[in-house]
Amino acid sequence: MCGIVGYVGSQQPSGRPLEVVLEGLRRLEYRGYDSAGVALVSPGASLATAKKAGKLANLVEEIDTHPMPAATAAIGHTRWATHGAPNDVNAHPHVSGGVAVIHNGIVENFATLKAELEAAGVAFTSETDTEVVAHLVARAYAQTPDLTQALRTVAQRLHGTFTLLAVHGDDPTTVVGARHDSPLVVGLGDGENFLGSDVSAFIASTRDALELGQDQVVTITPTEVTVTDFDGTPVEARRFTVDWDAAAAEKGGFRSFMDKEIHDQPQAVADTLLGRTDTTGRLVLDELRIDEAVLRAVDKIVVVACGTAAYAGHVAKYAIEHWCRIPVEVELAHEFRYRDPVVDERTLVVAVSQSGETMDTLMAVRHAKEQGATTLAIVNTHGSTIPRESDAALYTHAGPEIAVASTKAFLSQITAAYLLGLYLAQLRGNKYADEIGQVLDELRAIPDKIQQVLDRAGRVREIARWMADTQSVLFLGRHVGYPVAMEGALKLKELAYIHAEGFAAGELKHGPIALIEPGQPVFVVVPSPRGRDSLHSKIVSNIQEIRARGARTLVIAEEGDETVRPYADEVFTVPQTSTLLAPLLAVVPLQIFACELATAKGLDVDQPRNLAKSVTVE
Ligand code: M6R
Fold first, then answer.
1. Which residues are paired to 423 by β-bridges?
2. Which of 42, 59, 408, 539 lies deepest, with the highest CB count within 10 Å?
3. How many other C-beta atoms are found inside a 10 Å radius of the C-beta of residue 223?
């Protein structure tokens, strides 16, 4: 959840450490924005810290008012509060005996450790679990003045999840990091090195990076990076190059990251499709290093994911079952391992995650592996934990998604899951090559069609602005339109703080129709009339049922579908495509609606209240 940055540069103190860390925090702020803080180390001047509750802007103002010294090393933190209120005192860094520590995660045994420290006379100033770590590292350092060894010693005592960064006032050219179940990557510079929760922390300075494994400690100096396990045994870290640059992580003229990312969607889908076929048109998923015999033997697929990624899984279920005739279950990752799921070596567990760090999803992957299942990650973020711990990874190429609300990741997750479904169908002989080729051609046409939806979004924006005072919106869909409805509702809840529910349209008459009263706005996702006829006519009946009870119907329908017009207060059209691919278009007006309505309410669509982009606690 929290964002972490570390930097160490030349022996000459300067403003660069602070600049790098503030820039990194700006890019990581999507991970949490309850408070922010920095610690600087400079030769002779020892340790200086600044921290402030609220968004990063508050910290920047504080530093502008009380300038910090030139430095050689720095660490910075942006917080999503777990232990203790989001105030100045609980903000990180936490300092003890010359050591400053920042932390992402939860130290589950902090109460025991705190009691032990208090018994030894240590006084606490904050309510955080992190302060325990600062005191422990300071005490370990007092015994052996080696910061790396001190952090290793302490890491072994902690239960829970953590990425920790530490600096010591006596050591101006060293930053040490440790990770257990929380992310940390290293950026490799020239005469300077970086640490970050993800690569966006240092993307403005370098695209060369190192991926750290579980239970590792890293020490960076201006010229060296040393990685060991918690026992001090040296380990080799995998080097990789980030395939996007700093410009991709900027707003590019849009008023919000979310708005930009909605407009990135044609490219995100196109990039996710790119290079997936050979010269004969056969699908080749080179990254999927799973034995073909294992994939042929799969008799069940379980998708594990959370939030929007889970809705992408729901959409994929319809397609994969239809194309491959393999049963697909979709399970919220946090429910999966607690219900003793039936998975074995013939089960393919597919983890879908933009960040690749969602703790619930990671734990589901681990549980699936313990049960002998094959695990495959559909992930957007290189260097993240879920693909590293899975048997294989299929990367989406959506580029950095900064806004907390997921948009382009959703479309590229669906696209990647479709590629997986088609690949399995090809491998197992469920579909002829020309049938697969036809779907691929339709998929390749999707980016242009998304662009058409974006180009004609004026009306949906207008309606959204008119509806800024709305108290409740319902969303209905059938078949693949059902997860689209749930995603439309989630977008509105998280961005506009409006009560919203997504229902399967057929379920209405079993209860939810009681919610309909005169004026109640209801979005209805209508399937193509060219698809299965009964599906279309059933939803047209559902629209009539709610209209008869006074609902205000806002209908997403295919171009040329005139049958819905008599029953709709508003129709937003999307270009024609086949039923299974329609979610890639139908969700776009719903994303725009939520973004526009929240903006009209004066809300921050990139950083909605109480949320964080990367949910690295269970
Ligand atoms: O990084 P992930 O895809 O694993 O994240 C999963 C969910 O936390 C995420 O999709 C969340 O629901 C978004 N805020 C939705 O917009």
1. none
2. 408
3. 13
CB hemisphere CA count around 461 (13 angstroms): 9
Question: Each residue of 378-402: pLDDT tens digit?
Answer: 999 988 899 999 999 999 999 999 9
pLDDT band at residue 527 under the 50/70/90 scheme: very high
Q: Tens digits of per-residue pLDDT, 289-312?
A: 889 999 999 999 999 999 999 999
Say which CATH topology domain 251-455 has.
Rossmann fold (3.40.50)
- pLDDT band at 533; cut points 50, 70, 90: low
Provide the H-helix boundaries in 470-513: 481-496
How much distance in Å is there from the Cα of 612 to the middle of ligand 1?
A: 9
Tokens of 194: 């970086």
Residue 580: DSSP 8-state: G
Fold for 3-248, please state it.
Answer: Glutamine Phosphoribosylpyrophosphate, subunit 1, domain 1 (3.60.20)
Compute the CA torsion angle 171, 197, 273, 350 (nearest 10 deg): 130
Structure tokens at 528: 């193509």
- Mean pLDDT, to the nearest integer, of 318-344? 94
Q: Convert the pLDDT of each residue in 118-148 to its tens digit.
A: 999 999 999 999 999 999 999 999 999 999 9
Element (H, E) at 314: helix 307-324
Q: List the alpha helices (DSSP H) in 1-73.
A: 16-28, 56-65
- By DSSP bridging, strand 472-477 and strand 521-525 are parallel
Comparing CA positions, the residue from 517, 522, 573 lying closest to residue 543 is 522
If one residue of 358, 402, 407, 591 were mutated to test the ligand 1 pocket, choosing by the most ligand atoms within 8 A of its CB, it would be: 358
Q: According to CATH, where is 3.60.20.10 located in the chain?
A: 3-248
What span, in angstroms and rounded, lies between the C-alpha atoms of 521 and 554? Answer: 7
Under CATH, which number does the domain 458-600 receive?
A: 3.40.50.10490
Average pLDDT, the chain: 94
Q: From the CA of 611, give the closest atom in ligand 1.
A: 14
Structure-token match 């600096």, residue found: 167
Task: Report CA 413 to chain centroid distance, whole Å.
Answer: 12
452/475 Cα distance (integer angstroms): 23
Q: What's the mean pLDDT in 425-453?
A: 95
Which residues are CB-contacts of 329 (< 8 A; sequence separation ≥ 6)? 300, 301, 302, 303, 317
> What mean pLDDT do residues 227-234 have?
96
Rg (CA), the chain: 25
Nearest to 310 by CA among 336, 287, 285, 345: 336
Q: Which two tokens stand for residue 515?
A: 């919610």
Q: What is the pLDDT of residue 439?
A: 96
**Token pair listed for 391:** 């048997």
Mark 200-215 as b/e (b = at least 16 C-beta within 10 Å).
bbbbbbbbbbbbbeeb
Phi and psi angles of residue 365, each rounded to the nearest 5 degrees, phi first: -60, -45
CATH 3.40.50.10490 intervals, the chain:
251-455, 458-600
* Helix 433-455 and helix 408-428, axial crossing angle in degrees, nearest 10: 170
Rounded to the nearest whole angstrom, what is the distance from the C-alpha of residue 308 to the centroid of ligand 1? 5
